[in-house]
Design a protein that fits this description.
The complex is a heterodimer of chains A (about 475) and B (about 200). Chain A has about 475 residues and is of the alpha/beta class. Helices cover about 30% and strands about 15% of the residues of chain A. Chain A is built from 15 helices and 19 strands. In chain A, α12 (about 360-370) links the parallel β15 and β16 (about 380). In chain A, α2 (about 45-55) crosses α5. Chain B has seven helices and seven strands; from the N terminus they run βαβαβαβαβββααα. The chains are: A alpha/beta (about 475), B alpha/beta (about 200). At the A-B interface, α2, α3, α5, α10 and α11 of A face α3, α6 and α7 of B.
Chain lengths: ~475, ~200
């Protein structure tokens, strides 16, 4: 009888090129084959240069794809990039891709966009694969039951040269989310609550598997939101077992298998489940029924609370390090303990990033703002995750909904999630952001970030203060804030 | 990669948890296409504050960073390791490292040594009471010595071996090229390829 395995262990075992010698503490890492290498302009130039200097080739251009996302402007994309260092970095990617034969989707191309939006939408991300990218949010692709990991530039070069990675064994953690989300509560709230529960270091060394009825009920876009932020819990990766929702999403995408290959693939994908008698090293339970919209108050993604509660006091934390971190965070964020979260006024609302920039995110936010007016003091940026998402949204008229509301409708890219392009906060500016990191200065020097879901972002843009859709008058129809698979 | 056996240098107490890679090096410095020259970028936002530890002598000449738990969280940017090295740091001590940061350090010869938080606290006090105290980090014996404190540290054996030998990862892997080719021959046909491009 075969040894019972978790999903992550099955995917791992299917990719072992060479078992590491030795056992226990002396074990060498396994050498794993990498099915898909995603490349962007920021973490690749030094890796390409390394290949060149060593006289090495790119081993598998046919398993490699590049796009431009971090540096790209979201306005005037037909003009040369104004920032010269950004322009040089983009041009360097173009030169490198031409030299090494890498498929590149450049700014202006219909398939350009955030690397983690592009892979799935092209059907290149599939169940049971190993996916890597020089970007920590590669965990996004775990939504398909792939083992997907962010890597550093040395590892990018290693994958380019060998199509493999030496990886240390991981531990397994089940995140069981049972129940049904209430209207206005989304995948983003699930993952923010998970991070608040286990902490930013809680997942270190682990691959998380999100399980339970609440996860099964989620669409692929929503599962991507959850897996995306696995890294914010410190995890090496996060994944969801593939099911009919996954297959329905995949079918007909450009690079999805076709005909007999589709059948062979589905037969294999159906084996990608954690065995009933397999055990996880750790299990964490979260109740979906009672979950409320979640929002961060501090400067790391674990510093979050329910939107209906108040800014915590450093005294609430037993651990001295957590207490000191809370004090520092409150000072940076300009917040006073005890202030109700819903009384916090924001200046900017950012709807975008690899966490929340897909069609479902845009639709959910559009359903909230349709026919309403933005708070006049708020600037709202809507940045679709990819050029394809932008086109689809425009075909549904969502661009008009956002523009009528008073928001700016932008071109695709990472944008204000990390402010490498001109989309940045000013010093002291406060932002409700659907992105993934509320670190000091992340969205611009001195900027203050509250991580929220797309529907909370939309409600906040209407009221001017951090708000849930249920705070709106008149309340939105519940169908408009559905979060389940349709 | 340069070999790392033992290092003795001035210790810098960084009393902070969750030092994310956006703090170690803000995104604006990531537009460069070189692998060196990032010393100006290290902690650049914090270095604008005169009271920041690296703005105080003798800590500005430090080479052993002693940080709070969860060091290197967030973005995968290896630039964080490059910036620490370019500034002059040879090793970082913490009770918990983010996985990607730890991996990147090992590839670049920066020793990420995991100590018990109690030992970190003792070393912090020693460095604060006697600024300029040197810390010895010995990879052979996996021990940190600071004043009268002698503390063990953890590092996985494989990374330790690579650091001690100064081995290049890609070179090591390419010794197994035949295994890679053999694996490639067994991959199922339904696995996707990026080329030729299929478009919507």
């Amino acid at each position: 009888m075969a040894v019972a395995k978790t999903l992550a262990e099955k995917v791992w075992d299917a990719h072992v090129v060479r078992k590491g010698d030795g056992e226990g503490a002396n074990a060498q890492p396994d050498l794993l084959f990498i099915d898909l290498h995603l490349v962007h302009e920021v973490t690749s130039p030094q890796a390409f240069e390394g290949l060149r200097l060593a006289g090495r080739k790119l081993r598998r251009p046919d398993l490699t794809i590049a796009t431009e996302d971090h540096n790209t402007p979201t306005l005037d994309i037909d003009k040369p990039i104004a920032d010269l260092t950004s322009r040089t970095q983009i041009q360097t990617l173009r030169n490198n891709c031409a030299e090494f034969g890498v498929r590149l989707h450049s700014l202006g191309d219909a398939e350009q966009g955030i690397v983690h939006v592009v892979g799935p939408q092209l059907g290149l991300t599939q169940p049971g694969m190993t996916v890597v990218c020089g970007d920590s949010h590669t965990s996004t692709h775990g939504a398909f039951g792939a083992l997907a990991m962010g890597i550093g530039t040395s590892e990018v070069e290693h994958v380019m040269a060998t199509q493999t990675l030496s990886l240390k064994p991981f531990k397994t953690m089940a995140i069981n989310v049972e129940g049904a989300l209430r209207p206005g509560v989304t995948a983003k709230d699930i993952i923010l609550a998970v991070i608040a529960k286990i902490g930013t270091g809680g997942g270190q060394g682990y691959v998380l598997e999100y399980r339970g009825s609440a996860i099964r009920a989620l669409s692929m876009d929503a599962r991507m939101t959850i897996c995306n932020m696995s890294i914010e819990a410190g995890a090496r990766a996060g994944l969801v077992a593939p099911d009919q929702t996954t297959y329905d999403y995949m079918l007909g995408r450009p690079h999805a298998p076709q005909g007999a290959e589709w059948d062979a693939a589905v037969e294999y994908w159906n084996t990608l489940r954690t065995d009933d008698d397999a055990t996880f090293d750790v299990e964490v339970d979260l109740d979906a029924d009672t979950l409320e919209p979640f929002v961060t108050w501090g400067t790391n993604p674990g510093q979050g609370v329910s939107l209906s509660s108040s800014v915590p006091s450093p005294e609430d934390f037993g651990d001295e390090n957590a207490k000191a971190a809370a004090e520092r965070a409150l000072q940076y964020m300009g917040l006073t303990a005890g202030t109700p979260m819903k009384e916090i006024r924001v200046d900017t609302v950012f709807l975008g990033s690899c966490t929340n920039s897909r069609m479902e995110d845009l639709r959910a936010a559009a359903d909230i703002v349709r026919g309403r007016q933005k708070d006049p003091n708020i600037r709202m940026l809507v940045v679709p995750g990819s050029a394809r998402v932008r086109l689809e949204a425009e075909a549904e008229g969502l661009d008009k909904v956002f523009k009528d509301f008073g928001a700016e409708w932008r071109f695709a890219g990472c944008s204000m999630c990390l402010g490498m392009n001109p989309d940045q906060l000013e010093v002291g500016e406060r932002c409700a952001s659907t992105s993934n990191r509320n670190f000091e200065g992340r969205q611009g020097k001195g900027g203050r970030t509250h991580l929220v879901s797309p529907v909370v972002a939309a409600a906040t843009a209407i009221r001017g203060t951090l708000s849930s859709p249920s705070d709106l008058d008149p309340a939105p129809e519940s169908a408009a804030i559905r979060t389940d698979a349709t | 990669m340069e070999k790392f056996t033992t290092h003795t240098g001035l210790g810098v107490p960084l009393r902070q948890s969750n030092v994310d890679t956006d703090q170690i090096i803000p995104a604006v410095y990531l537009k460069r296409i070189t692998r060196t020259g990032f010393e100006d970028a290290l902690f650049s936002a914090w270095r604008k504050d005169p009271s920041f530890i690296l703005n105080q002598a003798p800590f500005n000449a430090g080479s052993v960073l002693v940080a709070g738990p969860d060091f290197g969280t967030g973005s995968s940017r290896e630039h964080a390791v490059w910036a620490l090295k370019d500034y002059g740091f040879k090793t970082v001590l913490s009770s918990r490292f983010a996985d990607i940061f730890r991996g990147n350090s090992g590839k670049q010869g920066l020793l990420a040594a995991e100590l018990a938080q109690d030992d970190i606290e003792l070393i912090w006090k020693e460095l604060e009471n006697a600024p300029g105290t040197e810390v010895t980090v010995d990879l052979l014996s996996k021990t940190v010595v600071c004043g009268n404190i002698v503390a063990p540290f953890e590092i996985d054996d494989y990374t330790r071996w690579r650091l001690l030998e100064g081995l290049d990862d890609i070179g090591l892997t390419l010794q197994h090229e035949e295994d890679i080719s053999a694996y490639e021959a067994t991959r199922p046909a339904f696995k996707p390829k990026t080329l030729p491009a299929r478009l919507s």
